[in-house]
Amino acid sequence: MSTMSQKNGEGKRSARERMQEERAAEEAKGRRLRKLWISGAVLAVLVVAVVVGILVMNGRTTSYTASQAPAGTIGANNLVVPVGATNAPSTLTIYEDPRCPACGEFEKSFHTTVNQLLGAGKVQVHYHIVSFIDRHDQGTGSKNGANALGCAQNAGLFHPYHDVLYANQPDETVDAWSDKSKLITLAKQVPGLDTPAFEACVNNNSFGAWVTAVETDFDKSGYNSTPTILLNGTSAYPSYKGTGLTPQTLVTMVNAANKGKPLGTLTPAGASALATPRPGAS
Amino acid sequence: MITGHRDGLDSETTSGGAGGKRLGRLSPQICDWIGTAVRLGLTVVWAWAGLAKISDPETAAQAVRAYQILPESLVKPFGYGLPFLELAVALLLLIGLGTRIAAFVSGVLLLVYIASIASVWARGIAIDCGCFGGGGAVAASKTEYLQEILRDTGFLLLTAWLLWRPASKLSLDRWLAAD
User: What CA–CA distance (Å, rounded) separates A94 from A156?
Assistant: First the structure.
């Protein structure tokens, strides 16, 4: 009797245990399957996000062709604004951001000298109007300023407007030129610049794609601060071949580089663009 | 016998093993809630990091280029793709789906970022890490490499919690009974 009931009890228990084990195994299997599905879904989310992201960002890049550049720009893809005699013996390459305070300092110290060198046909200046301060300090002042300079270039009045902007440069951290009307107000200091076409150009960000292309070119150039100044392709700021750059040494350096070469001759249009008096003096 | 069976958010109190590991004398309940807090904390970090980078493709590309690690052909894929990978990680952590995988990706990203920042620091390049938007060159006096690495290390510790114990309250993993 006792052995029978024991056997029965064991039989019952083992049957129950088997059922429990089967149920557990099934649940474990279901869990593994769910985990697998979730892992698949998660990996899909990650991959899709990256692919969609790259496509979205690519779509958001502004396409640019050289024909979108302001009139009179030169160089590969028309990213450079030339000022002065094209046959001048020396070339001063200047990378400047409208919002960059060090550029404001450079302009304050050097613009008279640079304008004299330009007027004398000793140098031509190749301006790269970059706009990376907006990234560091947030805002749109650099891009708006660069676009407005493009508009002025399109009207043949880049250089006087350039001088006006730097003479009235707001503090870097105050993004004053996010307000485009301020750029238009400053244009009134350059005779003949403030036309409806210019205002529309500033307000519509007409050279925005060009501004972006100039900045991207600067990004890839390896130069990473402004002002970057090159004299005939050699870095000249803060020093040129070991000599610190001052307005006086700049003249000496240019004269040395120009030795034995004929001076450039300004076109009448180029000369008149330089002749505009500096704001405050006018 | 504990089979791991659960039918809701609050049925795992019977066992320390149900929701994952026990941390010392903290109950699994509390550990689950810590997991939720860590998840949401990292969600904020990754969402912020991702969103700050997607507004301008050129800036995103330059932030990567400035490290001078990747060749130009890979600058854009990484600059464009990474912010969205960060956003995807944020989304997964927010809903608590595949938490361990999301934590793994989060950890890999943070290790790569820490290594990259250490690399530019060692090479004497002066950049903003571009971790939360921006990026690119800065004045040498404006670099904050140590702070950036310490901050990312903090995020890495949070990530480590989820890698070790991905179970948490208010998660899809829990809802689907798959954590």
Answer: 19
Average confidence score pLDDT of chain B: 88
> ipTM of the assembly?
0.84
Terminal Cα distance for chain A, rounded: 125
pTM attached to this predicted model? 0.80
Q: Average pLDDT, stretch B29-52?
A: 96
In a domain, B13, yes or no: no
What's the number of domains chain B is made of?
A: 1
The CATH number that domain A73-275 falls under is 3.40.30.10
Q: Minimal CA–CA distance to B128: which of B27, B71, B52?
A: B52
Say whether A276 sits in a helix, a strand or coil: coil
Look at residue B18 and tell me if it is in a domain.
Answer: no
Element (H, E) at B124: none
Tokens linked to B175: 């809802």
Interface of B with A (CB under 8 A): 1, 3-5, 54, 56-62, 65-66, 72, 76-77, 79-81, 83-85, 87-89, 91-92, 97-98, 101-102, 105, 128, 134-139, 173, 176-178
Cα A221 to Cα A132: distance, rounded to the nearest angstrom:
13
**Structural domain for B63, as ranges:** 28-175
Using DSSP, state whether A187 is helix, strand or coil: helix
Mean per-residue pLDDT, B56-71: 94
Nearest to B121 by CA among B96, B93, B144: B144
